[in-house]
Design a protein that fits this description.
The protein is an all-alpha fold. The protein has helices at residues 2-13, 21-28, 38-53, 57-68, 74-87, 110-121. The termini are far apart.
């Protein structure tokens, strides 16, 4: 939890996420000592904000991969979706509430997925 708090402070409170983008990607990919995905979830969440201002096709593609991976836990997939939505400019107010699990088929905006795919393929308008 200390590592999660450090990521949260560096990225959310101090606005230094862009300086730690590579670390966020590494944590999002899962590190062995983060057994409960505490740091991973925070890193995925922070990565969405970082990618909004600092586009990175590979990191965005990884978020899409996480979202689409049926083998991942629901909360990881939800966090990846919200991070992608933030990366393509969706306001927080338009995202599903964090207080509940959402339906990964019905509560997902196709426009977010399409925008992500366009950015990854380089066809962003």
């Amino acid at each position: 939890m200390l590592a999660r708090l450090a990521v949260q402070i560096l990225c959310r409170y101090w606005g230094l996420g862009a300086s730690y983008k590579d670390v966020l990607v590494r944590f999002a990919r899962k590190v062995p000592w983060d057994e409960d995905d505490d740091v991973r979830l925070m890193a995925i969440d922070c990565l969405g904000e970082v990618l909004r201002e600092n586009p990175d096709k590979h990191a965005l593609a990884y978020l899409l991969e996480l979202f689409e991976a049926a083998s991942e836990r629901q909360i990881v997939r939800e966090t990846a979706y919200c991070a992608m939505a933030r990366a393509v400019g969706t306001p927080i107010s338009e995202l599903p509430g964090a207080s509940r699990h959402f339906d990964l088929a019905k509560d997902v905006a196709p426009s977010v997925i399409n925008a992500v795919r366009d950015r990854i393929s380089g066809q962003e308008t």
